[in-house]
Structures are given as structure tokens and as C-alpha cells.
Write a structure and sequence with these properties.
Length: about 850
Amino acid sequence: MEKERRKQNILVGKLMKGFVDQTVEFYNGMKERKICRPTDKKVWDRLCRQTVPVKGRPLEEVYQEMLDDVYMSISLAQHPRSFSCVPSTASLVSWMGDIMTNAFNPHASCKRNALAADLIEKKMIHWMCDLAGYPQGCGGLFVSGGSMANLTALTAARDSRLKEEERGKAVVYLSDQTHISLAKGLHIIGFFQDQIRMIPTDRDFRMDISLLKEAVKEDAGKGKIPFAVIATAGTTNTGSVDPLPEIAALCKEYHMWMHVDGAFGASALLSEKQRKYLAGIELSDSLSWDAHKWMMQTYGCSVVLVRDQNNLTRSFAAHPEYLKDAKGSKDSVEFWDLGPELTRPARALKLWITLQTFGSQEMGTMIDHGCEMAEFTEKVFGSDKQIMKRLNDLGHDSIPRLVLRLAVPTMLAQLVNVLYSIVDRMYIGIGVGNLALAGVGVCGPIVTLLSSVSSLVGLGGSPILAMRMGAGKKREAQQILNHSFLMLLILSVALTILFLVSKDRLLMWFGASQSTFEYADIYLTIYTAGTFFALMSAGMNSFLIAQGFSGLGMATVMMGAAFNIVLDPILIFVFRMGVAGAATATVISQMASCVFVLLSLSQKKMPVRLGWGDFHWPVIRQILSFGFSPFLIIASDSVILIALNTVLQKYGGPNEGDILITCATIVQSYLLLITMPLGGITLGSQPVVSFNYGAGNVRRIRQAFICIIGLCVTFCTLMTVVTHLFSPIYVNLFTKDAEILHRSVMYIKRFTAMIIPLAVQYPLVDEITALGQVRLALFCSVFRKSVFLVSLLLLPALFSAEATFFSEPVADLIAATVTTTLFLHAFPRIMAKRTKEGQ
């Protein structure tokens, strides 16, 4: 048997010689190789069939099989074109150190087993502690990776800061960018989910120190024990470094343990240029540091460092009988006293060999080179500040600025969108006459009904899409966009057929008289033919805004308005098409907006691009449930417009019916100047609320509500002043009839008397919808419309036809009061529930 073993050893030597040459050649020619090399199906099937044999196989056969079938079927993370992993390219010097260490296989738990290896590991630990700025009495241990380093540090932290009876009250703080190994480690050492506070990060993905202070103060006030803060020096996602000096100061104030996960970034301590970013790391109590990430080591080379080595021995030192003979002097500390492992390899040796070969200065230069390459990549792909300015970080940008950047463009877009109807009606009133204006006014409810259908899908799907993006669920966000497109496609075809078949009967129901029917019929026939473009442009535009592209959303609307403004006078006056020209101009404008929004959603820069497929009925139900509230709000406007026209025609009689409807058409057009931009503010701001609700950031949600309501109130206050100063000029654009002009101005002032309370109602309803509280939003909407409808029916019956115009302010005041009361009761409960879900 001895001869056979020697013979096999000689064969191993021959194979290893060839293997070393082959590996060096492999590394030298790596640039020409593929990065990803999947396992061949035949090879995979063969490996699946293999088991551990009873009798062994020839070594050459096993060697070649492993080389061809296993080692050659891996993704090459060390390839110069591979950017998928944090660990850098491993040096062949480290690989050589690995081979040498594994060949001699030292038992590195105590100095008696491997005295020189023990000395080298201690030298490496103290050298790294010096780089970190730790004082005398520090220490550490080489472990398998960052996960084990973090677990070791957290165990020491628990035993250092907490008595056993205090552990149930202890709270740990980490950020939403912290590595998953920390959460796992906390679970292993006995912490429950409700003892872990995830602190949101700022725009630079650093732990938000103000939120951390608030959380610590709140927990301390509740009798809990703020126990530890886990900071990160080089996050996995972005390489960001938490504000270490500020965190250290807070930890000192509350006697908390400060652990720094420097698995990735701590290696920057070797660089004179980069170490400044780690200022404050010397104040930490413990530090994890992976040499296999940025120090060119093969896997399995990490270290945990502590300010006071006694904290490790307190947790891990043990003195079983079978170790007494192996231990040195009574006071000596062995590596088995510093961590959970007893049998352990000499992990520090390959790093020692690498540093002895290159020197620490060269290592620092290589780290600098990596940073320079990252800066170069940023210049090539991401340094265009004009592009960055068009992108809105919904999770980190300043809330007031974010609300303004999203709401103002959408508000202006909606203001411009009002021109669709106002320009039509203005040109019709001046160029065709008052009866034609009344006829187009009769069509208003049907146009509003079509808008409500686009809102059913657009405002139903876009908040869900924003929530899914905030939660990082891109596939589900894609599903929402695909389903919304399909739903709008189906609805546009169905509605086109429905309205074309039933338009004559509908117009007579909606208040058309014999004098106005002809004009209403022409306008509605042409407008209905363009239903597809109307629904698609309005509905899909919400998904541009929901992804932070409010500028594109504004461009969609402004493009359509520009077409309409230009085409209206040409078709109405130049081509003498009258009402037909106005309707045709509107359809062409909506067609242009539709093409623009669909092309925009198909661009590569979209986080979620327009697609097709993956359709499921439950997704449609979810969109419909979210969109039902805004749909009902707008659809009920249609019902109210029908009731308004009918009531005015009934109580006005043959002499005043058409006159009152003409005035109501002008009044409604003016009200759109207020409600459309107001809706634009709340619509544009919805992604801020939805995204942060998905991300669980309650503080930013509260800020958003305050900013949105403030902006709405400011706008409506300004419009109140404008109404009293400039409404006669506005009405004069529609008619030169003195009686209609006088009455319209008076009715406008009545109708808009309570728009400031309305400025509270609108954002509360829409942003409650953005939080997913559809039933509450729906109730508030239905309540306001119900009050309006009841007032609309009672006031003219009790007083006169003109009293109808008091219905709007009565509804605005009562509904705003009820909605605010319900919101103040429900909002704390909604936020408390979301906070609990986040924990």
C-alpha cells in the first residue's frame, strides 16, 4: 500500500506541474475567453447521474473530468470585462499562497501547532488594526468571509453591551443599504425582527443621520435599549459610506456599540487618495474587512477587527479539558479564544505572501486605479448633468423640491390641456354663435365620461406601478404597464361603437334642444371617432409621470394643445368647417399626443418600458380597484353636468333654458382652469407618495402631504384673486352678448366661491388613493358629488334657476370639512400599519 501511495503522489506531482502551467496560460489568455460559459447539457446529465463510487477511478481520469466539466464551466468573475461581482481579480500570487497553505495544511488554532503561521497572522491583524486607527489592546481574527466577520462582531457586541435580561429590550439600527449578512447575523444571535430598525438613506445612499437620531431618541423614550448601530463603509449596491463621525458621536452619547461593515470599502485605507472617505472608522468598536474583495485575494480571506480584544475573548474563550495540553501560558490568548472556529486554516498566509510581493504602496495604487476606472466609466455613461436633472429620485430628493418638479409641470400641462375645450368653445362662440356654443356644451358630459375611462386605467395603474418600483419589484411594475395598455385598447374600441350607435338618444337626454341638436350631433360624431387617441394619450401619460418623467408628461399635453390652438382657427374660419372643424382639430391633436406618449414609453431610458404579454385577470382587477375612485370622481362629473343642463333647461323654460346652458358652458370652462391644474398638482405628486409608501418611508410621506396641500391652497388662493379681477375679460372671449356676459361673470364668482376648501379636498382624496386606501378616497369623492347633486336638485326647486350656481360652493365646503376629519382620523393608523409591515 505504501508503494501505491508513493506512486500516486508522484502522479499528483506530474499532474500539478501541468496544471500550474495550464492555469498560468489560462490567465494570460483570459481576455480572449468568454465570461459566461454554461455547462453543456450532455455534461450536466452525466454529472447528475454520477454518485460516489464504491471503488475508486484512475486519478488522471478524475483530474481531466474535473478540469473539463467543472472548472471550465464557471463564470469568470476575474475576467477584465466582468463587472458583475464586487470582488476584484484575484492575483496569481494569492492563488500560489493558497496552494502552498493547502499543501502543508497547517492547523492554525493555536501557536503550538503552527508557530510561524500564528506569528504572521497576528502581524497581519495588528497591521490592519493600525490602518484602521485602533488603539493598543485591539485585536482580531481571520475568518472565511464578511458574513462570518459580521456575525463574530455582533456576538461580541451583544455580550459586551447587554445583560441577558436586557436582550429582549435591545434595538439595533442599520440602513436600507446594509448587507443582508447583518440581518442574518442578528437573527442567529437571538434578535427578532421588531428589534431591528431599518433607517432610510439620503440621496447619496448614506444612512440618514437625522432619522437615525429620531429613531434612537424615540426608542430610548419608550424604555427600549438602543444597543448598536451598524454602519457601512462601501455598500454593495453603490459603494456609499455612511457618515461615520456623526454615527460614532451618537453611539458615544447613548453608549451603543458601533460596528462598521467594511467588507468592501475598508481596503481604501491602503490608498492615500481614498482613505479620507473613511474618516471616523477609527472610532468604531468593530470592523469587518474582506481581503478577497479589493486586495486581490482568492475567496475565503476576511478579517474581523475589534477595538478591545477582550470583547472577543468574553464571547468565545473556552477551556475544555482536551485543549489544556495545546494551550501555551496561562494568560496567552489563542485564535480559538477569539471566534467560533476551533479547527481553522491559516487564512492570513496568502495575504502575507501577496503583500510581501507587491508591497502596501502598490496595493494602494491598484485601488486608486480601480477608482479612476470608475470615474472614467461615469464620464462615459453617466456624467451628463442635463440628463440627470431630468431624472427624479423619488426616494431621496428633497420633498419640497421634488413635489415642485413633478407637480408644477403636470399642473401646467393640465392648464394647457384646458385649452382643448376652451379654445374650441371660444372660437365656436365667436365664429359660429351662442347656439353652437350651447350645443358643444351639451356634448361636455360625454367628453368628460371618456376622460373618466382613461382615468380608470391611467390613475388606477400608475400608483401601483410607482409602488412596485419603490419596492424594487420591476417585473410586477412591467405587468401593470402591459395590462393598462391592453385595457385602454379594449375600452377605446368598445366605447367608440357604443357612442356612435346611441349618440342621438344621448344628446336629447343630456339637454339638447331642437335648436342646438344639429351642432351637438356634428361635434360628438367626429370626437367619438377619435376615442382611441383620446384614451391612449391621457391614460398612458400617467405612466410617464409615475416613473418620474413629469417633463415628458407635460410635453405630451402641450403638444396636443399646440396642435389644437393652431388647427382650430384654420379649420373653423379658413376652411369654414364650423363645429366640425373644432372637433377635427381636437382629434388630430389627440392623435399627435397619443403617438408621442407611446413612443416615449418605448424608449430604453424608461425604467419600465411599454411591452406586451404576461396578462393575468387578477392584475386587471387590481388596476380597476385602484382606478375606480378617480373614475367615479370624473364620471360623476359627467352625471352632474347632465343634471345641470337638464335642470337649467327645465327651470329656465323656453325663454331662458338655452341662455342658462350657454352661461353654464362658459362657467364650466372657467372652472376647468382651476380644477384641471389642481388635479395636475395632485396627479403629478402621486408618485412621491406611492413610491415612499412602497419603500416604507413614513417621514417622507408626511412631508409630501404637507407640501402638496400647501401648493394646492396657494394656487386656489391666487385663482380666487384672478376670478374677481379678470373674469369679465375671460367671458368676453366667448361672447359679445351683454346679457350673457353679465350673467356669466356673476355665475363664475358664485361657482368658485369655495375653491380654497376644495384645495384641501382634492389632494387628500388623490393622495389617499396613492396610499392604496381606495375605499376611503371613494367615499370622500362620492360624498362631495352627492352633496353637489342634492343641492343641484333642491336649490332651483326652492328658489330659482339661477340658484343652481350655488350648488358647487355648498358641496366644496361641506365635503372638505368631512374629508379632512376622516383623514386626520385614518392617516395615523395607515402610517402605523405601514411602519409595522416595514419592520
